[in-house]
Design a protein that fits this description.
Elements lengths: L6 H43 L3 E8 L6 H14 L3 E8 L6 H8 L2 E4 L5 H11 L4 E4 L11 H10 L4 E5 L11 H18 L14 E4 H5 L10 H11 L4 E5 L13 H15 L1 H24 L11 H32 L11 H31 L7 H22 L5 H4 L19 E3 L12 H6 L6
Length: 469
């Protein structure tokens, strides 16, 4: 017996079959479209970096163990992203095989005889011939795979300088506790204050940075040591450059660290004081002086326990006496620092007074303060011998503290001629270049510059890496 279905049921079955097949085809097409869209995004991003000229600059001092790996990693990363990149290693007086290791890895090598992190980077940036420059350390700590991430905000027009922020990935093994929680935050705070908080960065000491070469050259950077990092940020902020951070990884360094915690920290502090004397000295001096006046007023208004050691009125009087001396001296120090910075070219000035005028102003202020102190002293003497006294004991005590402070500050300012030699400045430090044939010049192995043959390393001569300009 044969069972058959009505024709209408077969038609319904066929319709359902073809309907399911259409849905399958549509799903397949949608997946293909999504995949094509993702591929187009990837290719668009790759195309963004294609042909972009980038030079990675590594300052190097005895980094034989890591410099070759860093060079190779940087070149591989740029090659994979389609970047037209090269690596420039600035040998800062290495006594090991760093230069040869960098050469074998595919880098150009510059020998800069002027010691210092800043001197090495200034030479490398000046020698670069590409629009973009990336600076990093040759010790294996920075995530060189992040080079495209640092470049992207520059290419998108979102920033003029990009920093690789390391702190979120730093550990006790990669960054000492003192640097992570004290040194770097303190210097970052001072740098931000020096720029009037116009920057929103959290890691001012990151040496992993991307920028346009010409913009940084226009800043006329002059530091030769580790303080170069702070000077670059402060001057960039003054020039209204947009500074942005991207998070990067931070690894344990390969080899021995060259960073000196206290000496390099002091160099940073000195550089910040010269670049921003208002933040470092003038404003604190004014605030200290104002605080002294307020404390004197509080002490003078006290009717009880003024003469009792340990009382609030006594503490206010003593503190006011100290602040009233420190405040004006620190304020004048800020003036001296500002003159020094302007004279040495670290700051520009619309009107720059000659040093003789500055000394005369100090002498004049000192003379006025000495006169005021003498008047105050006479008033106290008259009050003591006058019966009844026309000054209360609290007011007389505050006045005596004021007279002492003004007398001390007046004496300090009247000896201004003694500090005149410290205000005389020499021209800003210039790094050795190849322009002077009779001096030790900058050397690029396999590049454009040369150096006296007596100063060349035997390894470089034997390897044939040196070519005359």
């Amino acid at each position: 017996m044969t069972f058959t279905k009505p024709a209408s049921e077969f038609e319904t079955l066929d319709e359902n079959y073809f309907s399911d097949e259409d849905e399958l085809l549509q799903g397949t097409q949608l997946s293909n479209e999504i995949g094509s869209f993702e591929e187009s995004l990837d290719s668009e991003e790759d195309h963004q970096f294609h042909g972009v000229g980038v030079t990675v600059v590594f300052p190097c001092l005895n980094e034989e163990l890591a410099v070759g790996q860093c060079v190779e990693r940087a070149l591989e990363t740029m090659r994979a992203a389609g970047i037209n990149g090269s690596v420039l290693v600035v040998d800062n007086g290495s006594t090991d095989n760093s230069a040869n290791a960098a050469l074998e890895a595919g880098a150009q090598v510059i020998l800069q005889r002027e010691p210092g992190y800043g001197a090495a980077l200034r030479s490398g940036i000046a020698a670069a011939e590409t629009e973009f420059v990336i600076m990093a350390d040759a010790d294996g700590t920075y995530e060189l795979d992040a080079i495209p991430r640092l470049l992207k905000p520059l290419l998108d027009g979102d920033a003029d300088m990009v920093l690789g922020q390391r702190l979120n990935d730093a550990t006790t093994a990669t960054m000492p506790w003192l640097h992570r929680y004290v040194g770097t935050p303190a210097i970052t705070f001072l740098v931000k204050k020096a720029t009037k908080n116009e920057m929103t960065i959290s890691d001012s000491q990151s040496g992993f940075r991307a920028f346009r070469r010409e913009q940084i050259m226009d800043l006329k950077l002059s530091s030769t040591g580790m303080e170069f990092a702070s000077e670059m940020l402060i001057r960039s902020s003054w020039a209204k450059l947009r500074i942005k951070e991207v998070e990067t990884k931070y690894a344990e360094r390969i080899g021995e660290s060259k960073l000196s915690t206290f000496s390099d920290g002091l160099r940073h502090l000195r550089q910040i004081m010269l670049l921003s004397p208002e933040t470092a000295a003038s404003i604190p001096g004014i605030l200290a002086t104002v605080a002294a006046v307020i404390l004197w007023a509080f002490a003078a208004a006290s009717t009880r326990t003024f003469g009792q050691v340990g009382s609030l009125a006594w503490i206010a009087g003593v503190t006011a006496g100290v602040l009233s001396i420190l405040g004006p001296i620190v304020f004048c120090t800020g003036i001296v620092l500002r003159y020094r910075a302007e004279s040495s070219g670290l700051r520009s000035a619309r009107v720059k007074l000659p040093v003789e005028s500055l000394i005369r102003r100090f002498l004049a202020w000192g003379g006025v303060l000495l006169f005021v102190s003498i008047v105050g002293l006479v008033a106290l003497l008259v009050n003591f011998h006058h019966h009844p006294e026309f000054l209360s004991s609290a007011l007389a005590s505050s006045l005596s503290s004021f007279v002492r402070s003004v007398f001390v500050v007046g004496i300090v300012l009247t000896v201004a001629p003694l500090i005149a030699p410290f205000l005389m400045t020499s021209p800003r430090p210039q790094l050795p270049t190849a322009k002077d044939e009779h001096e030790h010049a900058t050397l690029i192995f396999g590049g454009r510059f040369e150096k006296e043959s007596s100063e060349l390393c035997p390894v470089c001569i034997e390897s044939g890496a040196l070519r005359e300009a």
